Amino acid sequence: MEKSMFLVSGAGISGLLFATLLLNERICSPNQIVIVESANSCGGLYNPWFCPNLGELDKGMHIYYETLIEEIDSIIFNSIPEKDWFILEGNFKDVAGAYYNGRLQTNSPYPDLRFLEKKYRDECITEILNNLNYIKKNKMEELITNGYNQFSAKDYWTSRFGSSIYQKIFNPICKKLYGAFGDELSPNVAYYTKLDRVIIFSSELMQEIGNSNFLRKVLAFPDQLNMPNYRSNSQRGLYPKLGMRRVVESLNQNLLDTGVKFLMNSTVRNIEYLKGKYRVKISNNSGEFLELFPTNIFWSGSRSSLANAMKIKSKNISQKGESNYIFCRVDEENLSLPDLYYFYCLDDKYSAFRVTNISQYTNNIDSKGRKLICIEQHSSTEESNNHRNIDDCAGQVINELLEMKVLTRKPKSNMVRSFQIRKRIFPRPLLLEDELCCNMQRIDNLPNIIFPGKNKPLSKSPFFLVDALKDIYSQFQQSLR
Ligand SMILES: Cc1cc2nc3c(=O)[nH]c(=O)nc-3n(C[C@H](O)[C@H](O)[C@H](O)COP(=O)(O)OP(=O)(O)OC[C@H]3O[C@@H](n4cnc5c(N)ncnc54)[C@H](O)[C@@H]3O)c2cc1C
After folding, report:
1. Among residues 380, 329, 335, which one has the least CA distance to residue 353?
2. Closest Cα to residue 459, out of 436, 480, 479?
3. What whole-number distance in Å separates Cα of residue 71 and Cα of residue 473?
4. Which long-range contacts (CB under 8 A, 24 or more apart) does 219-227 make?
5. Maximum Cα–Cα distance for the chain, whole Å?
6. Centroid of ligand 1 to alpha carbon of 61 (angstroms)
7. Cα→Cα distances 4→31, 197, 294, 475, 479, Å
8. 388, pLDDT greater than 60
9. Does residue 423 fall inside a structural domain?
10. Does residue 165 lie in a domain region?
11. Which end of the chain is more exposed for a tag (fewer CB within 10 A), N or C?
12. In ligand 1, which atom is closest to the CA atom of 376?
């Protein structure tokens, strides 16, 4: 490999980590790496907002889930002293819930069908068992074990559970969370928001059923904190006691100390590939332009943002809409979210998408003992210009939490802070976008460029940090080692 210059676009967690990997693996020396970052600080989405009354505010869930790739995890783990981590393991790795069918499920994030009206519940159980029986009898286990290879979310749910479960249970949830039906979206939605299993049986019966790998992929254990140890690996969740900002600062400082060059307030505007080299145009906040000719590029944004920089026309319909973040500090006695780190709100009666109980996996409790929660709304209206008033949205979600009895008292107005991002940032993997963006395949064939989702349709791109890092590492291994 030629080593003359490696350009890293974006100093979010993945850009900082990738630059450190290049140094650790002796692919580059520090003076061969240039990191370009649009903002005036590093961290990207892991950069918290700050509010004098509420403190540092993570944009939703920011636990680091290990990739189980030593070269990657050690960079994060060693960025701060070991004693400064909260380590979340076993059944406490990811304590998730759901608001479904008019009740808060703290036992499990999977739709708990045991609480449906009896006749309907029995119909559901019959359909699920008949479906599993058919799959097993016809040796079609692939449908369950490799479900994400299916074309659409509808195909995924129908083959897994049966068609009326898809229509009556999953399709309405899908519309609520993603603003589209299951036949319009990739199966990834089931992975993003834990919609790959259902609960139909008690813990006692599931203890016995749990011996079957096949059934465990479809039927959820109804009591997550008392689940037997079915896990096939020892993946942990990590959260820094002083907030994710510390990891970002430490990675940034280590790179600066070794002599890696950062161009802050600078944006990669245009990339051209010419005769084995890239020509990259960068502009900074003072309106100055700079051209660089790197041999290699790491691009931390999405495949479509890279296509934009390469002047390949694409339509970003999935990002229309908005994402709202509403934070509040509440007295412990006014919050009823036992053990949960977060829950997804699956009922379409409510606009909340996910509610994160940040204090449950961090020590983020203020001097008056108040806990911090974050409520996300991700709307997907096609008209991007009509944004809702953020204060109205905050009022709405707080009323929703009062109605759900998650909050028992309205938080004081100075304990509420809201932010609006004028595009939907939680993914909405529309199959239509794959069709509209088929010309993007050109960028998959380019050499010496690494980006999350390379060689994958847009709708199957990795989204969670752990998956993006695994994807990046596998490209790194194929192209650079
Ligand atoms: C709503 C939401 C919820 C999420 N929830 C979870 C979760 O629960 N668990 C989880 O593991 N992950 C979650 N994620 C994903 C996680 O946030 C991302 O995987 C992670 O932030 C990716 O880091 P990154 O460095 O690749 O990108 P980013 O954090 O987006 O950083 C990219 C950086 O690049 C800079 N940049 C962009 N374009 C340019 C350019 N042209 N030139 C120069 N600089 C540029 C940006 O300013 C930014 O600093 C969530 C993401 C979202 C949006």
Report:
1. 380
2. 436
3. 9
4. 219/128, 220/108, 220/110, 221/108, 222/107, 222/108, 222/112, 222/114, 223/107, 223/108, 224/91, 224/95, 224/96, 224/107, 224/108, 224/109, 225/91, 225/92, 225/95, 225/339, 226/91, 227/91
5. 69
6. 12
7. 9, 49, 7, 19, 15
8. yes
9. no
10. yes
11. C
12. 1
pTM of the model: 0.94
List the beta bridge partners of residue 370.
331
* 45 Cα to the center of ligand 1, angstroms: 5
pLDDT band at 181 (very low <50, low <70, confident <90, very high): very high
Decide if 98 contacts 343 (C-beta within 8 A): yes
Task: Name the residue type at position 118.
Answer: K
Same domain, 217 and 272: no
Q: Which helix (H) or strand (E) element contains residue 71?
A: helix 70-77
Mutate to test the pocket of ligand 1, among 75, 465, 472 (most ligand atoms within 8 A of CB): 465
3-state secondary structure of 110: coil
Residue nearest to atom 21 of ligand 1 (CA): 45
Close Cβ partners of 389 (under 8 Å, ≥ 6 residues apart): none
Ligand 1 atom with minimal separation from the 466 CA: 11
Distance CA 65, CA 77 (A): 11
User: What is d(CA 343, CA 105) in angstroms, rounded to the nearest whole number?
Assistant: 8
Q: Which of 277-286, 288-297, 304-313 bottoms out in mean pLDDT, i.e. has the lowest?
A: 304-313
Q: Which atom of ligand 1 is nearest to the CA of 42?
A: 49
Residues with CB under 6 A from ligand 1: 9-15, 36-39, 44-46, 60-61, 65, 267-268, 300-301, 323, 425-426, 463-466, 468
Read off the pLDDT of each residue in 152-162 and give the average, rounded to a whole number: 98
Same structural domain, 205 and 132: yes
Q: Which residue has the tokens 């009022």?
A: 395
Residues 184, 275: one domain? no
Over residues 96-119, the mean pLDDT reads: 97
- 262 and 218 in a common domain: no
pLDDT tens column, 336-356: 999 999 999 999 999 999 999
Alpha carbon of 468 to ligand 1 centroid (Å): 10
Cα(434)–Cα(463) distance, rounded to whole angstroms?
16
Q: Same domain for 309 and 448?
A: yes
Query: Do residues 250 and 169 both lie within one domain?
Result: no
Q: Are 182 and 461 in contact (CB under 8 A)?
A: no
| More confident site: 303 or 452 | 452
311 lies in the same domain as 453: yes
Q: Which atom of ligand 1 is nearest to the CA of 64?
A: 11
